[in-house]
Amino acid sequence: MRYVYGLTSALLVGGAAVSLMTGIPAGAQVAQNDAGVMDRVVPEAGAPASFADLTQQLQPAVVNIATRQSVEVNRNPFAGTPFAELFNRRGGNQPQRREAQSLGSGFIISADGFVVTNNHVVAPDNRARLEEITVTFPDGTEYEAELVGADPDSDLAVLKIKSDKSFPFVTFGNSAESRVGEWVVAIGNPFGLGGTVTSGIISAVYRNTGQGGAYDRFIQTDASINRGNSGGPLFDMRGNVIGINNAIFSPSGGSVGIGFAIPSEIAAPIVEQLKQGQEIERGYLGVQLQPVNDDLANSLGIERNRGELVQLVTDDSPAEKAGMRPGDIIVSVNGNPVSSDQTVSFLVANINPGQSIPVTVLREGRRVELNTTLAKRPTAEELAQQQQNFDPDSEEPMNPDQMDDQIAEKLGLQVLEMTPQIARSLGVDTDTVGLVIGAVDPNSDAARKGLRRGDVILSANYQVTGTIEALREQISVAESEGRDAILLRYQRRGQPLRFVPIRLR
């Protein structure tokens, strides 16, 4: 489960199946929500007296999805500390693996067995390895499936059932035509109760939940959606898939009548690309943004709930090359006004990389027109690394991949190379050359001498340490000359530069 301001991802639990009649002849090649079929199932206006016929027609194409994963269990006694990975590399107690499972929902979109679900249903975390995916039909029939493609940014994934049989399927509708107040039906696998049907209305369209990102844009419904509904379809009264159930707002962890589904107008093109094995490419501007709320609007004397404030411009990004500055307020992208329904991230992500577009900003009360050529949007991991500020007071361990074995072993330090983002976080000049201490082994001489996270190593033995390789080289020089210590010069915010000798281990 993921919690963001009370938003709980509808992750997967459960697995029981319910046996139901399909009402479709074996081998039929007609979609379960074919218009001709739906004309006989649902009256044209309003809701039916019963959802039974609609459910019987659609449910055969909705499946339960189970994954089997191999999870790494860290038996390292230093697990959770910055130097746990170094212990493993030295030949310590190696991690072991155990089996784990997850369950969720999905729906078939073609007779040859392509299945749509959420990425978080089938994507294991960094410690896990996906071993097997099983798709279970309402009648209890099980098939093995393979992952065809996944897109973490939109939280969508496409599977393919490993079978030559013909399957019942449903098709996407156009969520852009959906209206608040219309009836909807959700089918899925909440809490392991397979084949569960709930109904409600559309509470809002294009709901922004405050999570941020390019796809914070959902259909909100009061149809009961719970943990396990992830990846299941949200149908309109014509039997069209207008949303993919994705998350719930829940202070308690259970349904409180506020569920969110990815609109089909966003999902369908991405699903088609994943189905074809294509890479998802999106436009990228390179800014960190803040919505213009009432207080911000009042402070600047501008219209509220319009535009987004630029907090940071990423170095060497399209935004920087176009002349965008921190403090600018982006009010229009490619001619489209920026609002809570159409965020900058959403507008930019839906423009192809390499395309030149106009961006209108407010700068000190004036409208300024900028032209920028969008780059390719980095992966979610790369974006997180770019946007992550360095907190010198944090006790979170660094990424083990950033740790240099020799420096960690000889000095008891984790270090990383300075970037403009880190420099700003530490309050030092962005052109500072040095290595930032990310963690200190409490049993090292460096800890006894008072070095701590956030200190900047400027030199070693009077040689500038602008790179990890430079510090590693000075350690080697000291050892080759038979010296037991190395002289570091470091900077701490608000204090003068200092020299300190650190004993090698």
Automatic annotation (TrEMBL):
The alphabetical list of record keywords is: Hydrolase, Periplasm, Protease, Repeat, Serine protease, Signal, Stress response
- SUPFAM superfamilies in the record, alphabetically? PDZ domain-like (SSF50156), Trypsin-like serine proteases (SSF50494)
Q: Where on this chain does substrate bind?
A: 120, 155, 228-230
Identify the GO cellular component terms for this protein. Answer: periplasmic space
Q: Mention one GO molecular function.
A: serine-type endopeptidase activity
Major subcellular location class:
periplasm
Q: Where is this region: Disordered?
A: 381-402
This chain's protein is named Probable periplasmic serine endoprotease DegP-like
